[in-house]
Amino acid sequence: MTTGHIGLLGGGVIGGGWAARFLLNGHDVVLFDPDPEAPRKVGEVIANARRANTKLTNAPWPVEGSLQIVTTAEEAVEGAHFVQESAPERLDLKQKLFAAASRVAGDDVVFGSSTSGLLPTEMQRDMVHPERLVVGHPFNPVYLMPLVEVCGGAATSESTKQRAAEMYRSIGMHPLMLSKEIDGFVADRLMEALWREALWLVNDGVATAAEIDDAMRFGPGLRWSFMGTFLIYRIAGGEAGMRHFMAQFGPALKWPWTKLMDVPELTDELLDMICAQSDAQVDEQTPGMSIRELEALRDDCLVEVMHGLRNRGFAAGKTLADFEQTLFDRGNLVAADVDVTGPIRIHQRSVPNEWVDYNGHTNDSRYMQITSEAGDKFMRLIGVDEAYLQSGCSYYTVESHLNFIAQSHAGDHLYVTAQLMSHDPKRFHIFTTVHRADDDSVVATAEHMMLHVDARAGKSSPAAAQLQAKLAEIAVHHDLLPRPAQAGRAIAQSR
Asked: Residue 156: how many CB atoms within 10 A of its CB?
């Protein structure tokens, strides 16, 4: 990982989200925010992010970075290798912040701004080396939403934009590279159009806040999450395509349906109506929920949508799948660095809340999951990498046996060791042991028989020579190890 820390300027909702995303990706973070409540607020956002990310991917996250909160912008950026600003949307404030911070940060450090609408040309005006400022506009919650709009100003170099995009991709985001500087960028301009129309519908008594939200979440919002706008309309044109759609529905654009260019005056009466309807919607649909609980519900829904899209390898799901592969690659054990003289510490995981059953401890099925993940790690250790999988060959599990020794609970840190019991050209048999990290006690064991398969031929086959050689290398040591007590057991009839 690049030396130095991430400097964050601002720790509100967006800044806290950036802190969470960078920390959970293994970066140390130094954050400046003058709010005395910043440590509590940022800490709560990070706690929600940890919770959501345990659900987001089975890939192993890196060791979490450290967080330091400081009292000046200069402290935050000194020694940083990347800076992200998330201060309030005031041009004068951001100009002063960038001017001061740019005098202290290294000359080649990229500055990203989370602004949702201010122009980078104006923000970089007083900077030292203004060519290194770029807008990196994210969406809330930053630690889950993959989109980040990247936009440069008049002085911004192409190298800055590409380096910023590289950083954002490395933490699982989808950079949308904008070629033209414009107020509000792209996504906010689209959302603003919808927001204006929604305000008019409430103002004119056509629909309530809840009805408008229902119209979106049960209708086009579901499609928008993976198809956007133009692709939806292209499909609506049927076999004849977009031209047919435009011919059929284009004239409707001239009909007096919308008041997009005419905004209702935000009178106290209209604001009171909107707030009352919104509060009533929350009370009815999520009674008694705190703001943090609502955020957690939002996060769970986003995770589920992205999981579904990941299974299709499409839209935001492809971004997640690509990032998950990056996490797996980061977490892979490097064969040359692994001690194979004893059981190999192959995998680690924390127990998330959803793993816990009605008895208050980890559900039985989750031990199969974590030992299966350990088996995947073992396969990668012996050489079953992405290129090998693309060749159509892999190992398939053909038999497993679990033994439950003790309990684990939500929040417990577990690690898994693997012992190679036997192998031949087509098979290997491993015994895995799940330990609690705090005292190394054994929680469960599982053994798996793995069969090498050529999926294209549809049958078992000998593994590649290099895989067999690695198994033989491990076996030289593991054949000397004591046989685990639970290995090869049938179901016990008595204790």
From this structure: 24
